[in-house]
Design goal:
Layout lengths: L15 H7 L8 H7 L20 E6 L20 E3 L6 E3 L3 H4 L5 E7 L6 H10 L12 H9 L8 E4 L7 H4 L15 E2 L21 H21 L3 H18 L1 H6 L7 H7 L3 H15 L3 E4 L13 H26 L6 E6 L3 E2 L11 E2 L3 E6 L8 E2 L1 E2 L6 E3 L4 H12 L6 E3 L5 E3 L17
Parallel strand pairs: 1-7, 1-8, 4-12, 5-6, 5-7
Antiparallel strand pairs: 2-3, 4-11, 8-11, 9-10, 13-14, 15-16
């Protein structure tokens, strides 16, 4: 499959920014200031006082890369070998491979009538993350980027984070899934390394052991002297903005709160075990830490490339690996958020890029299926213990209440106090809905959930 082109070309001219990066700031690992320079002041501004009151302050997206089978999870039918089990909500049943989640369904709701268009992973993932079908000439902003733009940051934390890098076998092809695209690279997600690795750290937020905070301040004094030369040659608004970005970078670098957010040593062994000592569990644990510290949108993409893409041995993989892994991690997250008083302000969304075929293929697997699929969502003012829509007897087609990604977005935006009817003007001069529903019409919040 052809790779997509690089989206971020570097300027060739040698500028003051290049001088600082190459010289006086490199010992600090100050790439984080480059990240902040790319963000406009609007990205870090809070919403206006006239914004509607919002219960939700953050979103954790637990991304099931590859696409989970609806009939083997949230919409159990007669064409699965798994049996349905009761949950703690009368009348709602889910698959037996999720016994812990079944005890938390009063905080989660199921949408059983999601419908999208694309049948291949990159295209479908882009549609789910942006609400728009892929267009090679016009890349729509991702869900997390829109939240970042509309709400800005809290507590000096980056508003949009992705952990770890998703789609690791072909990251460039999937980049639009976590980028601002035409609204600007300043709204791209900040991609973090795998937090389950023993040497996990965020390099841009780590001072060398030989460098103290006091030395940083002295270094800044020297930088001011260097600046005098450049400012004598050219005084521009950009330089004034860069001062603010450098200040923000230093605040992130030196802020005890930011440092604590990325510091796993703050978590007990019991909590780490509770989530699971693996890539998925630790990614979700870090997501909780980040929203607790102030991040607005965190995509926890700990599943490996195509891990839910069960073209073969569907039942065995679900029973032995995928089911227990999700059951442990999602239940731990919901319990932890509730215990910390964060569940009312944090939306949890659990989805992949589509569902799976209602029929089993010759390899004992299920193939791609966007015509009708399921996801779960809760927290942050989203009502739990509800079921939206229904599928036919085999779970293959929508029977009642088709739901678009735009309807899902509109629901979450409403919970966050974001105007879901809003449009952004594209470079082509065409307005694009933040919550883009069927046939490029605005999505509608799901009244069952909010």
């Amino acid at each position: 499959m052809k790779k997509s082109e690089c989206y971020h070309c570097q300027q060739s001219a040698f500028t003051r920014r290049d001088f600082l990066r190459a010289g006086t700031l490199t010992f600090l690992g100050m790439n984080i200031s480059d990240f902040l320079r790319a963000r406009s002041a609007q990205a870090f501004a809070q919403t206006g006082s006239d914004a509607p009151p919002a219960k939700a302050q953050a979103v954790i997206l637990l991304w099931l890369e590859g696409g989970i089978s609806q009939v083997d999870s949230w919409d159990v039918k007669g064409n699965t070998r798994f049996r349905p089990i009761a949950t703690n909500v009368p009348g709602i049943q889910i698959c037996e491979i999720f016994p812990r989640i079944a005890k938390r369904m009063d905080a989660l709701s199921i949408i059983r009538s999601m419908k999208t268009d694309e049948r291949n992973h990159p295209q479908s993932a882009i549609q789910v993350f942006t609400g728009h079908r892929p267009n090679p000439t016009l890349k729509a902003p991702s869900f997390g980027s829109i939240v970042s733009k509309e709400l800005g940051s809290r507590n000096s934390m980056p508003p949009f984070v992705v952990v770890p890098r998703p789609f690791e076998d072909d990251p460039l092809l999937f980049e639009p899934c976590y980028q601002g695209n035409f609204i600007g690279s300043e709204y791209d997600g900040m991609v973090l390394p795998d937090p389950s690795k023993p040497d996990f750290r965020v390099p841009d937020l780590s001072l060398p052991k030989t460098v103290s905070a006091e030395m940083v301040e002295d270094r800044r004094t020297m930088l001011k002297m260097v600046d005098q030369f450049f400012r004598a040659k050219e005084e521009t608004a950009e330089f004034a903005d860069m001062d603010a970005f450098e200040q923000q970078a230093l605040r992130m670098l030196l802020s005890p709160q930011v440092q604590r957010a990325f510091d796993f040593s703050q978590e007990t062994d019991k909590t780490k075990d509770r989530y699971g000592r693996n890539r998925v569990g630790q990614s979700v644990l870090l997501a909780r830490r980040l929203v607790e510290a102030g991040c607005r949108f965190v995509t926890a993409s700990g599943y490996k490339h195509g891990q839910w893409d069960t073209h073969g041995d569907n039942d065995t993989r679900l029973r032995d690996t995928l089911g227990p892994l999700l059951d442990q991690t999602l239940s731990a997250l919901m319990e932890d958020l509730k215990e910390r008083g964060l569940l009312d302000s944090t939306i949890v969304l659990v989805t992949g890029e589509f569902g799976r075929t209602p029929t089993i293929n010759p390899h004992a697997g299920r193939d791609h299926w966007p015509d009708c699929w399921s996801l779960v969502v809760g927290g942050g003012g989203i009502r739990g213990g509800r079921v939206v829509g229904s599928s036919d007897k085999d779970g293959g087609y929508v029977a009642e209440r088709p739901v678009s990604t735009g309807d899902l977005y509109a629901t979450i935006y409403k919970a966050m106090g974001i105007d879901w009817t809003k449009t952004y003007m594209s470079p082509a001069g065409r307005p694009m809905y933040l919550a883009n529903g069927f046939n490029d019409t605005p999505g509608t919040p799901l009244k069952e959930l909010i």
